[in-house]
């Protein structure tokens, strides 16, 4: 949700800022802008509606000099995406320029008060209010920029990651955060600033993650200084990044999403790497082992997440309840945080988040913490806010996921949850040893099995084209495949803009069946399971109403594949691991339909990868 980049040092800032914006474009892409202080101290702001490439075209003939600058790629919250509302925003005198990720909730009151003092506004954003407030406070108190930022932020309610620069002061960037992420990269005589580490990694692997309500003062030739808004000095904790630059490139793939789908043969190994022993009779999930007692004492587990991560959570519920016999509740973070849930100190609350920055999930954790629950995080981004807040947890270790639609992170989340369920079950003695070992052995066969699914890519691409006509899709699955149906439908909606609904297959007769006609494609996950025959009956019901069926079936299937119009075969495995295999053809199906429709699959309209606002 909005990407922030900053640079101060000895190099030209503009190319570094633009490259950084491209790396962060997955966070938002409705407008972009840069502000730089040129060699004479002048503060220049260039911004435009559209993607970073539109900004580059616009800025081509401008003065792009300067060794200090800040830049922004926007996902609109307050104010429509246009040139005016793009960041950076100038203050009234044009002495300050500011970029912001987050939402200033009390912006209306502050704006009204500033208007009464003679301030005028060029945009309809909440952000412009903040830069005007900083300037007002600075003038009123005759103080430096850092103090003005501290004073202004102490009046602000909401979430922010900001960076501000001042005309005539090419030596300093002031940055601050609360509830929105911000990382400072420390190079040789230079500092980088970004919403996540991806724009920084090619220059330095030394970073400082700012904590809530911290302000960083980045001054050329001086050590980084970190203060709180209340002016308490903090010792910056310099950490080393373990990110690999090649992971950020698209390679030979047309889109990041396709690359990430294909990477799953590797990422399913990485998620288990070092966690399952060679004898396949033990799982070592450190976050679990260190906090085993809390889990074993729990009378229930609550899993909270959003979007795709919520679908993984549902699979986790099925596995934990089946194997460990602990009741699990799965909650949308956005609902959980506001619906006054009962949370006990004996509860374990697991947050699942690829980005580790989703604002609603962070707030749900905050609530759980206030109520004394034990917090556990399953995140992909190392050092992200949720990972730091939970303190205990597991990383999915799939490397950066850049396509906005989540793919490889989902399959790894499911693996972690299955490993957690098995670990709990073993501790509680609720699982047969032979079965435990069998699941682990099956886990190791996943890469080969995924390869055989990916080998059907061309076939899936061919028949996907037929479905570009559709304006609706239904996805059906039962048991562990119900969350797969939800995830398949979400993938299609996200990137092809075709309306799709995931349903438990048996619920079809209570509504969705009314929608079925010759125009309606229905994806049915009809893999081997105790309910296979019942799902086959659902396929018959669809066919007798002339619906088009795409079936996901298990190798050797004799029945469903014959009735369906199209079928995709997946290898057999234990039921709890089927979602990992069954999801992959659905990712490919959505991808190819979206590409055939000419959609921008990596940056679908209105979406953002990391949702750091409510
Ligand atoms: C956004 C993304 C989804 C993602 C969801 C939750 O909506 O577009 O792909 O599933 O946020 O994100 P998280 O990072 O918390 O998993």
Task: Please provide a written account of the structure.
With 614 residues, this protein is α/β, with parallel strands linked by helices. It has 20 helices and 25 strands. The strands form four sheets. It has an eight-stranded antiparallel sheet, covered by helices on one side. The chain has a seven-stranded antiparallel sheet with strand order 5-6-7-8-12-13-14, covered by helices on one side. The protein has a five-stranded parallel sheet with strand order 17-16-18-19-20, with helices on both faces. Helix 7 packs antiparallel against helix 15, helix 10 runs antiparallel to helix 17 and helix 16 crosses helix 20. It is globular. The termini are close together. Bound molecules: 6-O-phosphono-alpha-D-glucopyranose (G6P). The site of 6-O-phosphono-alpha-D-glucopyranose has 16 residues, from helix 10. 6-O-phosphono-alpha-D-glucopyranose binds next to helix 10.
Going by helix content, strand content and strand pairing, the class is alpha/beta
N→C terminal distance = 10 Å
Shape: globular
Mean pLDDT: 94
Radius of gyration from CA coordinates:
25 Å
Q: Which hetero compounds are present in the coordinates?
A: 6-O-phosphono-alpha-D-glucopyranose
Quantity of strands, as a count: 25
Taken as a percent bin, the fraction of beta residues is: 15-25%
User: What are the low-pLDDT stretches, counting only 5+ consecutive residues below 50?
Assistant: none
Strand order of the largest sheet: 3-2-4-1-10-9-11-15
- Tally the helices: what do you get? 20
């Amino acid at each position: 949700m909005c990407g922030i980049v900053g640079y101060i040092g000895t190099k030209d800032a503009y190319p570094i800022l633009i490259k950084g914006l491209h790396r962060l474009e997955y966070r938002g892409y409705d407008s972009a802008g840069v502000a730089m202080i040129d060699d004479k101290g002048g503060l220049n702001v260039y911004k435009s509606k559209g993607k970073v490439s539109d900004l580059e075209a616009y800025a081509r003939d401008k003065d792009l000099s300067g060794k200090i600058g800040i830049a922004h790629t926007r996902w609109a919250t307050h104010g429509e995406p246009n040139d005016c509302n793009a960041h950076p925003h100038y203050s009234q005198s044009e002495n300050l320029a500011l970029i912001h990720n987050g939402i200033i909730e009390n912006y209306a009151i502050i704006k009204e008060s500033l208007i009464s003092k003679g301030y005028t506004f060029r945009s309809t954003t909440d952000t412009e209010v903040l830069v005007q407030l900083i300037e007002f406070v600075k003038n009123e108190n005759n103080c430096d920029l850092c103090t003005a930022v501290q004073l202004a932020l102490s009046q602000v309610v909401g979430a922010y990651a900001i960076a501000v620069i001042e005309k005539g002061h090419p030596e300093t960037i002031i940055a601050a955060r609360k509830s929105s992420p911000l990382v400072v990269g420390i190079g040789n005589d230079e500092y980088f600033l970004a919403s996540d580490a991806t724009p920084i990694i090619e220059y330095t692997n030394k970073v400082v993650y700012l904590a809530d309500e911290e302000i960083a003062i980045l001054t050329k030739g001086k050590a980084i200084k970190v203060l709180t808004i209340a002016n308490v000095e903090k010792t910056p904790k310099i950490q080393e990044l373990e990110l690999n630059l090649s992971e950020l490139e698209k390679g030979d793939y047309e889109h990041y999403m396709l690359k990430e789908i294909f990477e799953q043969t590797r990422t399913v190994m990485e998620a288990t790497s070092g966690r399952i022993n060679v004898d396949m009779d033990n799982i070592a999930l450190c976050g679990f082992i260190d906090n085993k007692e809390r889990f074993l004492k729990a009378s229930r587990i609550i899993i909270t997440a959003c979007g795709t991560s919520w679908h993984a959570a549902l699979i986790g519920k099925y596995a934990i309840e089946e194997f460990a016999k602990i009741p699990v509740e799965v909650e949308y973070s956005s609902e959980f945080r506001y619906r006054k849930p009962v949370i006990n100190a004996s509860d374990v609350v697991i947050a699942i988040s690829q980005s580790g920055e989703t604002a609603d999930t962070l707030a749900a954790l905050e609530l759980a913490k206030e109520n004394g629950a034990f917090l556990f995080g399953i995140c992909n981004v190392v050092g992200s806010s949720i990972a730091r807040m939970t303190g205990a947890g597991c990383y999915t270790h799939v490397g950066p996921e850049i396509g906005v639609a989540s793919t490889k992170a989902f399959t790894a989340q499911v693996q972690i949850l299955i490993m957690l369920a098995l670990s709990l079950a073993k501790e509680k003695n609720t699982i047969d040893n032979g079965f435990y070992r069998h699941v682990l052995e099956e886990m190791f066969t996943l890469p080969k099995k995924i390869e055989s699914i990916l080998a059907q890519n061309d076939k899936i691409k061919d028949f996907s084209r037929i479905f570009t006509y559709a304006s609706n899709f239904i996805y059906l699955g039962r048991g562990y495949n119900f969350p797969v149906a939800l995830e398949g439908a979400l993938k299609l909606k996200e990137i092809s803009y075709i309306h799709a609904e995931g349903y438990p297959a048996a619920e079809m007769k209570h509504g969705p069946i009314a929608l079925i006609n010759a125009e309606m494609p229905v994806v049915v996950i009809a893999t081997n399971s105790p309910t296979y025959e019942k799902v086959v009956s659902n396929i018959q019901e669809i066919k007798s109403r002339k619906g088009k069926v795409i079936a996901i079936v298990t190798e050797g299937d004799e029945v469903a594949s014959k009735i369906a119009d199209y079928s995709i075969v997946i290898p057999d495995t234990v039921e709890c691991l089927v979602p990992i295999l069954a999801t992959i053809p659905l990712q490919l199906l959505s991808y190819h339909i979206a590409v055939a429709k000419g959609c921008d699959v990596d940056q679908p309209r209105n979406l953002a990868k990391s949702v750091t606002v409510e």
